[in-house]
Design goal:
Elements lengths: L6 E4 L15 H14 L3 E5 L5 H13 L4 E7 L2 H11 L5 E8 L2 H8 L3 H15 L6 E6 L6 H14 L3 E3 L9 H14 L7 E5 L7 H10 L4 E4 L13 H10 L1 H4 L10 H12 L20 H9 L19 E3 L5 H10 L6 H17 L3 E2 H9 L10 E10 L5 E9 L4 E8 L2 H13 L4 E10 L8 E9 L2 E9 L2 H17 L9
Parallel strand pairs: 1-2, 1-8, 2-3, 3-4, 4-5, 5-6, 6-7, 7-8
Antiparallel strand pairs: 9-10, 11-12, 12-13, 14-15, 15-16
Helix pairs in contact: 1-2, 1-11, 2-3, 5-6, 6-7, 7-8, 16-17
Length: 512
């Protein structure tokens, strides 16, 4: 009987974090993981334990925070990597390991310098060792779509005998086509002894824009696990967007006849949270969750939607968690009213979170005439505990207008030890002067601002401004973000956030 259940493996915290400039701290990883749990993700790949002690700590924190999804860590085919995973999560229930080695000729010969026999030996040795500590062992043949089919079957057979429970055949560089991917899985299923005893998985990248098509093709070929990231982030052109896979399988259940554990009503909230914490904006024309996904400008389309929404909308916005933006709260609203509105929007807020966010809400209400749902969502989703661990915090500033459109900024920054650091800077405009003042105060001579973006979170002239920045130190990129009605304050806090990530050892992870 055909297996109708498709399992969702989310690698936003691992492959997604390898997006240039994205660097999530432990609290942010846990926050995303908890949201992925509500979304209904089956397996969370929380990171690469061998990358650094900080990454291992974050993986452990994720495994301790969630209860329903299985949590796994990536590892190469060596004892050191596997031991790092064992030490991080080996004593926690519902955890596993994801081991990989490259199998294609170009990777074997030019990257690894290994023969086929050596690749098989390393694969078997590592899986056998991991099987002593984990019941769930996923094994991946990196660059499988450029690997000889017979060799894929050979590797698969050997690692199944060694104890692998899931076999993943990734399209690592987005090279294959749907037709080729189907034939690959059919060949493996027909020519690999024991393949019926393991779960088959696909992992598709979007270099040629085929990640979704290839993932669906794999499912049609009998694959029961799909791997990807929220919003399609990841290396190079990104991974398949899991929300697109889930929406497609649900919308066209009449054709695919598949079941998932995904709660589509959590898609919008999950997507927005990942966008905020990674600093990667969602393109307006992005499938399923883009700002224009349910917008209609053509007169013909508008006429059709007015008469019957199904004329041009194959999904209801509410089905994936979008809500109409409206004024719900005012300056005199109390804590209970704020909590009730969060519950109406699908957010659970504990007492500590409510106390912290309510202070920011009252400050916002004093400065804004209208408070919208997006405003209070932004306050909650940016309310984390990372401030407690920050090295620097922005206190205040003043600006002096000089001649020829020049500004001078005077900034005050507080060190985590309580000391006050002062700086001045002169620049072409207030932001330029402010950032030069911060550079001077913190003696940032070897850093470079490479990106600066401002978004409006809600409506009106007094909308909250959301600022994203990226700074470069040598070859590493670090992101920062902040929100405030005053965009200059938001700009300062975003820059300080990026500097904190740069200065904190955990953030300076080597990306393997």
């Amino acid at each position: 009987m055909e297996n109708k259940r498709v399992y969702f493996f989310d690698t936003t915290l691992r492959d997604g974090e390898q997006t240039p400039g994205v660097n999530l701290n432990q609290e942010e990883k846990v926050e995303i993981a908890l949201r992925l749990e509500k979304l209904g993700i089956d397996i969370i790949e929380a990171g690469f334990a061998a990358a650094s002690p900080g990454d291992a700590q974050a993986i452990r924190a994720v495994a301790q925070a969630v209860s329903k999804p299985m949590v796994v860590s990536l590892a190469r085919t060596n004892k050191e990597d596997i031991d790092a995973v064992i030490n991080a999560i080996g004593d926690i229930d519902n955890t596993g390991i994801h081991i990989f080695i490259a199998t294609s000729p170009i990777h074997r010969e030019r990257k690894l310098g290994l023969t086929k026999e050596q690749v098989v030996a390393k694969a078997v040795e590592s899986v056998s060792y991991a099987a002593k500590h984990f019941k769930h062992i996923e094994f991946s043949c990196e660059d499988s779509t450029r690997t000889e089919l017979d060799f894929l079957c050979e590797v698969a057979e050997k690692v199944i005998e060694a104890g692998a429970t899931v076999l993943n055949f990734p399209d690592t560089v987005g090279y294959t086509t749907p037709e080729e991917y189907i034939k690959q899985f059919q060949y493996i299923k027909e020519n690999t002894p024991g393949i019926e005893n393991v779960r088959l998985s696909c992992h598709c990248h979007d270099d040629l824009g085929l990640a979704l098509s290839n993932s669906i093709a794999a499912i049609k070929a009998g694959v029961t696990q799909v791997e990807g990231c929220i919003n399609g982030i990841g290396e190079r052109a990104g991974n398949v967007a899991l929300e697109e896979v889930a929406a497609l399988l649900e919308t066209r259940k009449d054709y695919y006849h598949k079941e998932t554990g995904i709660d589509l009503k959590e898609v919008a909230r999950t997507s927005k949270l990942v966008s905020r914490l990674t600093g990667i904006a969602i393109p307006p024309n992005k499938a399923v969750i883009g700002g224009n996904a349910f917008a209609h400008s053509s007169g013909i389309h508008q006429d059709g939607v007015i008469k019957d929404k199904s004329t041009y909308e194959i999904m209801k916005p509410e089905s994936i968690g979008f809500h109409e933006t409206k004024l719900v709260l005012g300056k005199l609203s109390g804590r209970n009213a704020l909590k009730k509105r969060y519950e109406e929007l699908g957010y659970f807020v504990n007492d500590e979170q409510l106390r912290e966010v309510f202070k920011k809400y009252k400050d916002l209400a004093d400065r804004k005439k209208e408070i919208f749902d997006e405003d209070i969502i932004a306050l909650l989703e940016t309310q984390t505990t990372k401030e407690k661990h920050s090295l620097y915090s922005f206190k205040d500033f003043s600006l002096q207008i000089l001649t020829d459109n020049q500004y001078r900024a005077f900034v005050n920054i507080v060190h985590s030890d309580g000391s006050l650091i002062e700086g001045t800077g002169k620049g072409n405009g207030p932001i330029d002067a402010l950032y030069k003042g911060i550079d001077g105060a913190l003696q940032l001579e070897d850093t470079e601002l490479v990106d600066y973006k401002i978004n409006s979170i809600s409506q009106g002239k007094d909308s909250i401004g959301e600022v994203f920045v990226k700074v470069r130190k040598k070859e590493s990129l670090f992101q920062g973000r902040a929100i405030n009605v005053d965009i200059i304050v938001a700009s300062a806090n975003a820059y300080i956030d990026a500097i904190n990530r740069l200065k904190t050892p955990y953030e300076n992870l080597s990306k393997i």
